[in-house]
User: Fold this.
Amino acid sequence: MAAGEKIKAKIKKNLPVRGPQAPTIKELMRWYCLNTNTHGCRRIVVSRGRLRRLLWILFTLTAVALIFWQCALLISSFYTVSVSIKVHFQKLDFPAVTICNINPYRYSAVRDLLAELEQETRGSLKTLFGFSEITSRKRREAESWSSARKGTGSKFLNLIPLLAFEKGETSKARDFRTGRKRKVSGRIVHTASDVVHVYESKGLVGFQLCSNDTSSCAVYTFTSGVNAIREWYKLHYMNIMAQVSLEKKINMSYSAEELLVTCFFDGESCDARNFTRFHHPMYGNCYTFNNRQNETILSTSMGGSEYGLQVILYLNEEEYNPFLVSSTGAKVIVHRQFEYPFIEDVGTEIETAMATSIGMHLTESFKLSEPYSRCTEDWNGVLITNIYNATYSLQICLHSCFQAKMVEKCGCAQFSQPLPQGANYCNYRQHPNWMYCYYELHQAFVWGELGCQSMCKEACSFKEWTLTTSLAQWPSEVSEKWLLSVLTWDQGQIKKKLNKTDLAKLLIFYKDLNQRSIVESPANSIEMLLSNIGGQLGLWMSCSIVCIIEIIEVFFIDSLSIVARHQWHKAKEWWARRQAYPCPEAPPSPQGQDNLGLNIDDDLPTFTSALCLPPAPAAQVPGTPPPRYNTLRLERAFSRQLTGTETPYPHQRPEPHQQASHGDSRLLAYSRLPGR
Assistant:
């Protein structure tokens, strides 16, 4: 190495190297700790003593860990909401009110359709409870089973056998149709529990359902014979009514003039023309008040019972089906306009001979959609077809999903829900064993195995009316006589005198005009998130966002550049070694003018080129004439002594091995020729 290069390398080694020009990552980290604004890193380098240095390392790492922890909490809680409740006083829109008679159809109109079913039901009740005037229990039990086969045939009992299990016995049951005990195949399902098990504390009554190929059966048992008979009757009732046309069912149900005796709203009279008919599969004709007729919504100007809806209903208890319903009254539901009224799910029952007052409080909720919550407004992101002609709600989605699964698995639609496009209602003529499929599917739906609960989402905005119900006897004993007489005169089409057990009074009103709104809003924003992260950095490390950028530059960009530079130098050295020209082997016995050592280039010889020359041959007389010495120009080529080749005695002739070590071996061979 030349002297200048040695001095340059020594200066470069002694001078401090800063920033990304540092030769190693260690030097880069040292430079960063000495120049950064984070005090903990600087104390690691400048502290004296191992203990202090270890303590500052521990403190710095702890602070970094706390920063990561706090920032992770801030980021994870970014999509949280804050709930604000606002209460304001204003004139409120009156909700839609749907009223249904608990009895869906007049019994006199459907008696012919249900005659055979009624006959078998009465026979089953006599078999189970022994409806006779015999007082002896032993005689009643002896005759009850034989009386089950009297009368008409057992068409419905053949389709769905009714069975009675004695206490502690599960393998055998007494058949209502034959009155004999028989073996029971299939599992036993107790409907009062969520688990499949055998209930052994008392006798059970149930019915057996089987699949299409009768390979699998299930017995659905009830602790009460009344519930078993009603459920068995309801299955056959849906089978029969599914085959009746919609127009005929509307005619068999109650008209608005029959159901509504009087109407009064917000201080003004109203009548059946203010109600819209809505046919429900299980409740017949229902009527909705304020269902946005003529694109107008009624509103109320004051709170209190005098400014709400007041109606008197005629329910006609004599027309009730004794096996389908066991109570007298009506069902009412308060809902939004264009919202489907789920009478069977959330309806409120009102009693006959009573005045039912329902006070309302309006609560309006607004939820944030994704990513804050899983809610939707108009079926976005819900892969289920809406079979209801109404706005989206969670109940509509769940019922639509179950009906779609029913059509897919069982091949027909369930009677109590709207009919999907291209499907038919289930009945035992076209689908003999649909009931087993329905029970199995319904059980899977309740347990969440159909996936409907995961596919359906909540509605982002909805209105909810909190109802407060109070009852009073109506009419009173002192006013019963004249009031019933006047109501009978008002209802001219009714030939019989009205009875108070056929009437019910309903009052629905706002208790006050205070509307409560529950609104969700984002609890965080990008500005708040950056401010909170900056506060954590300043608290634990006394740095800012600029320090974070500096850390990214040093620990990632500069460190990677140092590593890349080191690898590049290694690759260049490897490539240089690979591309180095290998030394050729010595040619065999060069002589005379063929001696390559005598071809002197214009450039001076170097130590490297001397090493590549072949060794000098042994002393011998050349076989060729001597070369022309005047062309060699040795004196001109070696007129200047090379550095490091001086001899201690100028007049002493150097030995051949010494001269070969400093000069050209070919020159040594030439000096030993004869005559020199």
Residues 107-131+157-246 form one domain. The radius of gyration is 52 Å.
